[in-house]
UniProtKB/TrEMBL annotation, chains A, B:
Keyword Nucleus assigned: yes
Domain (T-box) ranges: 13-192
Highest rank taxon of the organism: Eukaryota
Interval of the full protein contained in this chain: 1 to 205 of 338
Name this polypeptide is given: T-box domain-containing protein
Sorted UniProt keywords: Developmental protein, DNA-binding, Nucleus, Transcription, Transcription regulation
Organism field: Exocentrus adspersus
GO BP term (any one): cell fate specification
DNA sequence: ATCTTTCCCACCTAGGTGTGAACC
DNA sequence: ATGGTTCACACCTAGGTGGGAAAG
């Protein structure tokens, strides 16, 4: 076996300041049956790969503290009971895998299409999480052109602590909701700073 | 060199009856500076590949008759002068390349993201054509995991004559326009069969 | 009661259509 | 004049937001 471990490459987190703002408040990510994107999305710039070798890149959701959480408006998030069984479907293979080092380094690598879900058997591209549990995304770069052998080849793990989050089915901390609304273009309709002309309303019968 | 030629695989054109309807009228495809999708899009179902080998699949636009065309409402399309110089950027690598035979065969392979353009130096995913020239799409399956060597490995070419078309900057045959409007979901607003409630109009000053 | 999940909704982003006037 | 190209536009498809009621 003459594989060379890809342990000398460089991975830089994009939109880091936004992640930090969320992390200071304890980031929450919505999970739904049909799958919900992460916001912010994980995006990294990679350097120092072998330009001519093939790599598969994926994202793994790991549990960081082995407990279930609970939110109270007074005290925020706090542990509340033991960890529940985790689904094995917590790995997202970047859809452009496999590709050459040259390709991965030519532009930012985005995990914006990944979706979080609580459905037991979701379609590909979805990752199964448990609500009220805390996760730490881990980016894995495996030196292989075959996604099926990613567990058996040299790999590099990269973890950005500011990207950890608690999975929820509805936002708990309204400061988090506000930060999402103010920064996610798709939530523009909920902004209050004069950009949106109409307030939200429901049809009543 | 012990490559085995992929010459025994099977490629079937999807939405063939729609292609035939267009072809009977002489298909036209719009090209623009910013790039225009083809409609119908080329879609094929592939079988009999080696499930474990890697393949790159691409689409090549070849000129079929070496002349420029002209349209007249009375006589339709007719040759009108010699062929103009063709751009070498007439190859579209399917964005999921490279992938295993197993993957390519697991679902229809669609070239729906390909865009046709008349701009000299377009972004990747665009193919440069000359207006008023006739093209024949050619699907190429190359047995390699490296897109850079597709010219030097065994490859299989597949051509469906009913998919040939004339590139235009504006539709010439109004029967073609009608067929596009009736079948392309994005042109639904132009349909006349009661589905659309508003007629097209311009703001005038 | 309380906490968590689900569903439909108005409101957005993003971008694919042919039109018809203007331009060349 | 004529023929071909470009552009802004109304109108669509497709799908990502959190809100709030209802359900579990």
């Amino acid at each position: 076996c003459n594989y060379k471990a890809p342990n000398d490459c460089t991975v830089v987190l994009k939109n880091r300041s936004l992640w930090q703002k969320f992390n200071e408040l304890e980031t929450e990510m919505i999970i739904t049956k049909t799958g919900r994107r992460m916001f912010p999305a994980l995006q990294v710039q990679i350097a120092d790969l072998d330009p001519h070798a093939y790599y598969c890149i994926f994202l793994e959701m790991t549990t960081v503290s082995h407990c279930r959480y609970k939110y109270s408006s007074s005290g925020g998030w706090a542990p509340s009971g033991p960890e529940e069984a985790q689904s094995p479907q917590c790995v997202y293979l970047h859809p452009e895998s496999p590709a050459t080092g040259e390709y991965w380094m030519s532009q930012a690598v985005s995990f914006g299409r990944l979706k979080l879900t609580n459905t037991p058997a979701p379609p590909v591209g979805h990752v199964v999480l448990s609500s009220m549990h805390k996760y730490q995304p881990r980016i894995v770069i495996a030196k292989t052109s075959d996604p099926r052998v990613i567990d058996f080849v040299p790999r590099m793990n990269v973890v950005f602590p500011e990207t950890q989050f608690i999975a929820v089915t509805a936002y708990q901390n309204e400061e988090i909701t506000k930060l999402k609304i103010d920064n996610n273009p798709f939530a523009k309709g909920f902004r209050e700073n004069g950009q949106s002309k109409c307030k939200r309303k429901r049809v009543s019968e």
